[in-house]
Amino acid sequence: MSVLRILHLVGSAYNDFYCDLSRLYAQDCLAATVDRSRYNFQIAYITPDRQWRFPPSLSREDIAVTKPIPLSDAIKFLTEQNIDLVLPQMFCIPGMTHYRALFDLLQIPYVGNTSDVMAITAHKARAKAIVEAAGVKVPRGELLRQEDVPTITPPAIIKPVSSDNSLGVTLVKDATDYDAALKKAFEYGSEVIVEEFIELGREVRCGVIVKDGELVGLPLEEYLVDPHEKPIRSYADKLKQTDDGNLHFAAKDNIKSWIVDPNDPITQKVQQVAKKCHQALGCRHYSLFDFRIDPKSEPWFLEAGLYCSFAPKSVISSMAKAAGIPLNELLMTAINETLGNNKKALQNC
């Protein structure tokens, strides 16, 4: 069996927060999937100044001593490496779109969704419109720009149209609170969504993977919410920053989130809707969607988060583990889907 040369595409072309977030997930992936008999891993690390580095590891020390080079030199280097495929680990908008498109131009395959699909789902209003057209329930909402006035009667959710990890999200219970909530949301972009608040219920995520061309629904992950004490999730529920400046996961403690019993009747219902979303959006290899479950047990699409870094704490990895799919098998499945029938290099491992 030939060893696959896999490039981990890490960092951010946007800001230090996304740089650290990317490094956090990618480090865990590298540590958990290292297997020199199968993979030869390389790292490309992009910083907000758009410079590239090719460090031997993702330690701060190795990154610091690796010479930064411009895109033109990076392309020359990449085309000389005989890379079999890329594992994208970037979470900023340029990382999800421009950098994936670059590898399309270089004709180097990459795991995960295409740049155009990522661009659509990064814009929450566009993703909602597409899945709604496919028959999926979505909260009634409106897209606002500066100086626009909301018309939805509270309670309502206000969120930036293109931010993740609940940055800038506010539950407005009274119309007098709209101004402050809008001001907060507009700090993260020029467009904001105002949505009708869906009463709890529950809040779950559903992952879908593609195996041998078939869509496979994974066990749901449920999040700690409460109609009175905690009606929505916040940034603090997802990530935390320590005194040393490093980011850490906050929701991976089986208290703020847990895997739903597969026999729970909501599982099959949500999986069917998630597969519909996957197909409507044109996803490939894997997908991940957030749903609000109302008091009548009806799922409402909230947003898509089409990421999987193949770190043990990645949501799709956790769901797959609960389904009896080890991390390396999950990665091999994605690699085989990426490379297609011409190069099923790992199918017999």
From TrEMBL:
Residue ranges of domain ATP-grasp in the record: 128-336
Keywords: ATP-binding, Ligase, Nucleotide-binding
Family annotation (InterPro entries): ATP-grasp (IPR011761), ATP_grasp_subdomain_1 (IPR013815), Dala_Dala_lig_C (IPR011095)
GO molecular function, one term: ligase activity
The family this protein is said to belong to: Belongs to the D-alanine--D-alanine ligase family.
Name of the protein in its database record: D-alanine--D-alanine ligase
Species in which this protein is naturally found: Nostoc linckia FACHB-391
